[in-house]
Amino acid sequence: MQQHKDTAAKWLSGLLPAAILILVGLFAVMVIRDYGRESAAARQTLLEKGSVLIRALESGTRVGMGMRMHHAQQQALLEEMAGQPGVLWFAVTDAQGNVVMHSDPGRVGEILYTADALQKLTPNAEAQWRSIDALDAQGNAVPALEIYRQFQPLFVSGGHGMGNRMRHAARTIVSDPQYIFIAFDARDLATTQAREWRNTLIMLFALSTVLLATILTFFWYRRYRRSRQLLQDEINRKEKLVALGHLAAGVAHEIRNPLSSIKGLAKYFAERAPAGGEAHELAQVMAKEADRLNRVVSELLELVKPAHLSLQTVDLNEVIAHSLQLISQDAHSREIVLQFMPDAALPRVQADPDRLTQVLLNLYLNAIHAIDHQGTIRIEASAGGAERVKITVTDSGKGIAPEQLDAIFTPYFTTKADGTGLGLAVVQNIIEQHGGTIHADSPAGKGAIFTIWLPVTGKRKDPQG
Description:
With 465 residues, the chain is of the alpha+beta class.
């Protein structure tokens, strides 16, 4: 049942962030796509209004031309149409940009745009628009939307009678192309655009916040699950140690006394049997096996009982050098090179030197066993920050299989034919009693690396914690 729950939790933890990311992405696309719709609608309204006014002025001009309307009357018509709400100014220019008619009579005859500016605007039969700055009735600069195209007072369709006379009159009066311009007050449009931009930014910020929160929550949940799994593994290990403690107490009581008797009898028979005889050899094997069983019991008790640490100020350089001296003969006989460079700046730590020596010896012996013949064991010690020191033991041996890395600190797990599987478990126990940690790694083809972290202050962990 628990396995099904864990599987469902893993499935949901992977599916839920993906679903949220998809929804956030779709919502962001919709927000961006909808951006500008309101302002585009408002701009389209102004464009349509401008087109209507321009066509109305053209129609009035056509009628006026047919009726021989004076220029002053056409100017009055333009001024009247410029009185529509929202119109800032209305103007008609010739091909050189000179104002022919303007909603402000005082500007007639001025240059509205130079010939070069008109050429860049490229007015044609289709209405065009652009955003400009203009002055309102009070002389204040305001954003404006300028609509412009060719002025078309001529009839474009055929006809007879009055229509022909009007067309002829218009062609007589308007010989050169003219351009019509109308500027609308675009403050409302600018306000709409600013509101759209602000709202879009707010929505995108909100979406980004949701996305970031989702990502952070996802990684936090994964970290929580990993921490929870590590904690559960630690609890399981502690429970195993408690069970081993009860077993060790019984084993120590039930086995050690018979072992002492067996070893004594083995020595008795060895002393009375002829040297080199079969009985003498068998007696020595019995004594040796009794010692081995006694060692197993001792290691088991060492594993499950809280370590009795004798903390003192320790120079790790001296501890490492001393531990290497103890195995130097064995390493030399196997042509194994021991490498260690003392670090004078290494801070002293509060630790039990005998226990640390026991830890290092165990790691060295494992390294020698992994190398067997001709290789290198390198020991390094360095400061790992203001409160910790790091010790690494690296060998050039055959390494540790990836599937074995997670199990090497488990009691009774061993790859040695004559091993007890308690050595590294005891090492971990001693390091944890010092308040430190130990980690094993084995890069492909590069042997094994054991990394020990120890606190400088020597804060001992609660054996019961």
